[in-house]
Protein: LacI family transcriptional regulator
Organism: Microlunatus antarcticus
Amino acid sequence: MVTSHDVARLAGVSQPTVSRALRDSPKVSELTRLRVREAATALGYVPSDTGRALSVGRTHRVGLLVTDLANQFYTHTIAPMHHALESLGYQLVLHTEASDTGRVADRLLSNSLDGVLLATTATDSLLPVRLRDRGMPFVYFNRRASAVEADSVEVEARSGMRELTERILALGHRRVGAVLGPANASTASNRELILRSTLATAGVTVPDELAFRGGFDFATGYAGAHRLLEQDDPPTVIVCANDVVAYGALNAARELGREVPGDVSITGFDNLPEASWPLLQLTTVAFDLEAMARRAASLMVDRLTFGPGEPYRHEWFPSHLVERSTLGPPSR
Amino acid sequence: MVTSHDVARLAGVSQPTVSRALRDSPKVSELTRLRVREAATALGYVPSDTGRALSVGRTHRVGLLVTDLANQFYTHTIAPMHHALESLGYQLVLHTEASDTGRVADRLLSNSLDGVLLATTATDSLLPVRLRDRGMPFVYFNRRASAVEADSVEVEARSGMRELTERILALGHRRVGAVLGPANASTASNRELILRSTLATAGVTVPDELAFRGGFDFATGYAGAHRLLEQDDPPTVIVCANDVVAYGALNAARELGREVPGDVSITGFDNLPEASWPLLQLTTVAFDLEAMARRAASLMVDRLTFGPGEPYRHEWFPSHLVERSTLGPPSR
């Protein structure tokens, strides 16, 4: 079988140049393009859909790597991402994170993807390093690892988290609990930092016994709220790492017969569609998740279209407090 | 490049046997498996995805066609389906249904998929016909179209729906409303039929003014419950086409200040994880959705492995009533 390496040898160029030339990349001179096309024709090199995947590296498939497909956050992310990619001529291939970074990287690299949207939570993962070393383009979604630069979309959490925390303080809360996200997630540590620094302006802290740490999931919120509310001196408010965690906390409060916000206030982050359900009415921090998901898709396609030479883009989506019914004054 | 045919020659087996052996299929004896693995190792055969696509016509990608990615039903379907496929060496590629059947079929056929899991709702779609005519294997998930036979997994809804309806009658409900699913969905029409025929045994009907028809979504349940509950003579119970519809109905009831089940009972179908939330406590009909999703994945892989000659398999998952807190006796 003729490969792009054969074409490269005959044309006297590198294999990546063959890829670029056959993709009509503007980075390749007209002369080189012609030479490559002649070599390809002479060798009978056919860039079939699958053949092209092997030879010039285009499959029009983009992987999405998530931590947990059953998490509502991803439900509301996948749909707009899928639609945006589809309208740009790309398919979305799902991948979930395993504990072993190496195996995930191998899967992503062996699966003939053009690029990967990284929506996993860990900032300490070696995955970005491995993807960069193997030349696989990727976009950070709602996260960023400092070790490797790449295009990114993130929430500008400061304004919304500060607004939320100031409202908590203004209502008179001083016994503040928190169900925090994973310690190695940039989003979680960022939100925690803003919460703590804003509370500190009023001399308020989240004491260790009122800080529960876990995943960004329902089970964490449920277990965390149980733990915090069953203490002798429970918090008057529980700040949750995100909405899904808050759903868990709200359900734990219901199960324990605690009124929200009468006995305890509970807040979220993300403003997912369920947050506005009349049955939940969650006070939370909002940003435009759909727009962010669509933007990640278009940054990915831009990167694939214009190549690795372009400067990286880091886009931020502003956040703000959305007041509903789960945050009120403390009852004690 | 070493292909599976080379491995087959060296091992003295057929090429399909190589595929099966390397996937650890139970249909291959331990001895054959070892012989094939030795041959593969000796030849340095690397089953890269794209290489496999070219050499044996396999991409190891399976499409999943759904109606609405943001629907919680699909959230809880995609995760187990993805995991089952991954463990069998396949990737899941997402597709959503557009209004134009022809375009969907073209997309599915042009995208180098090995097969498609059809989880869309319409039974009157031409899609199965087009897929069959072009030789694309597919499995019906939670639906079936009579025009074209294929492997299928479905809920055996009769037992659960009958149990639910009998319980509704036993509690004394006679003014029964329903938020029904799409008229062209086999699941919806089947559940409606069982509801009506079981009610008929007690001389009870769902009158036209208490039957609201729409999609399998939150908005339908919300709008439907508003419509039914704002009537002069509202129903004492609203039977919803599925859990997601029931979430919408429960939220409409809350918004209208109606107690559930005091003022109105509300029931679902599917028993999704949210149904057991202390805040919802939805009485519903349960079946093993995860097992059904995994089974669809393995039927798909079996079909791809053993070819079109095998007889079609139709698997049914039993259903039963799960009583929680949203169904009680009528207050009038």
Summary: Chain B touches chain A through 42 residues (CB under 8 Å). Residues 162 and 210 of chain B are 20 Å apart (CA to CA). Residues 48-55 of chain B have pLDDT under 50 and may be disordered. Chain B has twelve helices and twelve strands.
